[in-house]
Amino acid sequence: MFIHPVERVFILGMDGAGSFIQHTATPHLDAFLAQGAFTYEAQAESPTISAQCWGSVLHGVHPEKHLLTNDIAASERYSADSPYPSIFRLAREAWPEAKLASFVGWSPINEGIIEEGLAIHKVSLPDEQLVTAIEQYLIHNQDVKLLFLQLDEPDGSGHKHSYGPNSPDYLQAITNCDRLIGMVLASIERLNLLTDSLVIVLTDHGGGGADAYNHGSDHPMDKQVFWGCVGPGIEAAAVLPALSIMDTAAIAAFALGLETPSTWDAQLPESLIGQSRKR
Question: What is the pLDDT of residues 242-269, one digit of tens each?
């Protein structure tokens, strides 16, 4: 199902959407993810909070190892010599001249979760402006090796209007992010980058479980999230096993042909790599 290495990896995320894309209109994600592997039952890390979860997505370890919290990410820089390197640090160490980019709506990801000093093109802007910036970046940097996107609005809307299938404003924020991710996907396809790229689409956590206006618990509404990927060798409508969002790091590293650090907790889903091992 999964041929590697690919030329580049895109990790496209929205914050706080849980598995609720199944309760609102997401035509762009629906059409795109039908081409690959997808699940509504991936698991966020605990506690189900942004820094802990995005930290695990990017660093491949549980929160009790990377030790990131929202406050720490907003005020401190992640150690450049941590035993738990991000996927960006792995890529930079493998390819000193490669183009790496991170576009985020929540600036602590760029400032405190991804290491400094790696010559990463980092942009922090509101969601709409962020997507415009990515579209322009891709036109001039089609040889980018790793690109990360985090759209912030679903989480903000959930905190303001409540999370879940009975919150129209929250669901509309997810639909709006579907449109924005659709614009990025359209750019990737228009530039003929999809044929030799892995595209991962995910969210970090849900919300509304223990508290309608918050998240952080292990309630399924907070913990259960969507995750999908499309790329060379991944069959349409492929079934994914239970996986953690933390496994994103291992999957991205595998796709790029990078060796996974022994310190990482992230695992490779057998259904994504089994057939490639047989080749």
Answer: 899 999 999 999 999 999 999 999 999 8
Query: What does the pLDDT look like over 60-86, one tens digit per residue?
Result: 999 999 999 999 999 999 999 999 999
User: Rg for the chain (alpha carbons), in Å?
Assistant: 17
Give the residue ranges of DSSP H helices in 14-115: 27-33, 50-59, 63-66, 70-75, 87-94, 108
Secondary structure letter of residue 113 according to DSSP: I
Output the six-digit token pair for 22. Answer: 């199944």
Give the length of the chain.
Answer: 279
Please state whether beta strands 100-104 and 121-124 pair in parallel, antiparallel, or not at all (unpaired).
parallel
232 near 195, Cβ under 8 Å? yes
Amino acid identity of residue 195, one-letter, is: T
CA distance 194 to 191: 8
> Of 20, 7, 8, 12, which Cα lies nearest the Cα of 175?
20
- Helix, strand, coil abundance in the chain, percent, nearest 5: 40, 15, 40
What's at 182, amino acid-wise? G
Q: Which two tokens stand for residue 173?
A: 């924020």
Q: Locate the DSSP E strands across the chain.
A: 8-14, 37-43, 100-104, 121-124, 146-151, 197-203, 224-230, 238-239
Query: Which tokens hold the place of 230?
Result: 């499309």
Residue corresponding to tokens 């889903």: 269
Buried b (16+ CB within 10 A) or exposed e, 198-229: bbbbbbbbbbbbebeebbbbebebbbbbbbbb
